[in-house]
Every structure is written in C-alpha cells, then in structure tokens.
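Problem 3 from the worked examples.
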Amino acid sequence: MVGGKRRSIFVTLAFLMLMGVAVYFRLWAIHYNISSDDTQLLRRQFDIANKEAMDESAEWRLRYDEEVDRTKKCLQELQAFQESSQKGEVASGVNHKLAILQKENAILLERVETLKRELEEERLKCSSRYMN
C-alpha cells in the first residue's frame, strides 16, 4: 500500500512536472513571437524615423540652397549698383531727369489750377442762367 501510494505520488509529480515544462515552452513560444513582432515594430519605427530625418535634412538643404541663391542675387545687385554709382554720368542723368520731371509737375499743377478756375466760372455761369 505504501509502495502504491508512493508510486501514485511519483507519477502525479512527474505528470505535473511534464505539464509545467509544456506550459513553460508554450509561454516561451508566445514570448518569442511577441519579441519578434516587437523587433519588426522597432525596425518599422526606425525606418519611419530615418525617412523623416532624411526629409527634414532635404528640406534644410533646400532652404540653404535658396538662401545661397538669394545671397548671390543680392551680391550681384550690389555690385551692379556699386558699378553704376561709380559712373558719374548715370547719377547726373538721373538728377537731370528728376529736375525735368519736377518742372513738368509744376507746369501741370498750374494747368490744373487754371482748369479748376475755368470750371468754377462755368458753374457760376450755369447757375446764374438757371436763376434768371
């Protein structure tokens, strides 16, 4: 009896150990699948982050290139302005044109005043005709 009871306990213990090992391997397999999914997820996240970084780098490079082009244009305009300012003929020609335009403007202002006076006289004539 004692031998049968021991044997029964031993078989039960062996069965439980076998079930424990089976559960352990099952949990290990689940963990392995999750770990491999995590690895793939991390790889995808890294790829996305890498693409975003490359896009941002390209954007900054484009901005840099635009600023370089803008700076070159400004330098060219500055050089052209310096060359033109060194030539006295251009400056005196501009001053001469400005003087002519100012004279024309004064003449036109006088003409406008004359036309306003004539218009006022005509209005007075018209209003006096209608009153009589």
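Problem 4, a separate protein:
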Amino acid sequence: MQIDSTNICERLCNKSIRDISWLLNIPRSTVSGIITKWKQLGTTATQSPSGRPRHMTERGQRMLKRTVRRSRQLSAESIAKDLQTPCGLQNSTTTVRRELHGMGSHGREAASKLYITKCNALDAMV
C-alpha cells in the first residue's frame, strides 16, 4: 500500500494526476481511482478477500500436523475422528486430506530399497 499513501501525499502537495502517474510510473487511471477512493472512504484499504473462508483454522492445521507427525500410518478417517474428540473440530475426511496435501504430506509408500550386503558394497566400490 505504499503506492497509495505516496499518491495521496503527492496530491496533497498540489501535484496533478498526470505528474503523479509520471513520477511513479503507474497509469493515470490508477492514480485517479486511488484519489477518488480516498476522498469517498477516507482510506485506501482494499475490500475483504473474496471466496469462502477456510473451514480449518490455523490452530486446527497445527493440531493436524502434530497428529500426523506422531503417527504417520493413520488414515484420514481416523485422523478426522482424533481431531473431533480433544478440540471439537468437525472436519470431514476430505477436508483432512486436502489440508494434508496442502501441507505437503502425501499418502505414498516408501521406495523399496535393496539390502546392501558386504558383497554388494564391494562390487559398487570397484
């Protein structure tokens, strides 16, 4: 919001909209819109974010992450049930999966690795 306050300060210093847009290298329509908004509302704050609010709060996300770290083998259904009891969060399994996916936790099996014997290790070194 630095551009907004700069525009207002410039306007208060009796500069024209054209001069302000040239100084800040932004379109005249943007400068004019900000000044108009300032005159009407007294502020240049933006509107509240659009879209539906997230169902799981930050606290719920932290608890989910902690639960998954404790036992990584749990299913999404059991995690959702575990979160319901202590803190009263009513989240579906889909929400739990979506949040875990967003945190970077994916339900994948570990890669199978061969057992390295002394013979295998010696062959690799040669």
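Solution to problem 4. The mean pLDDT is 80. The first helix runs from residue 2 to 12.
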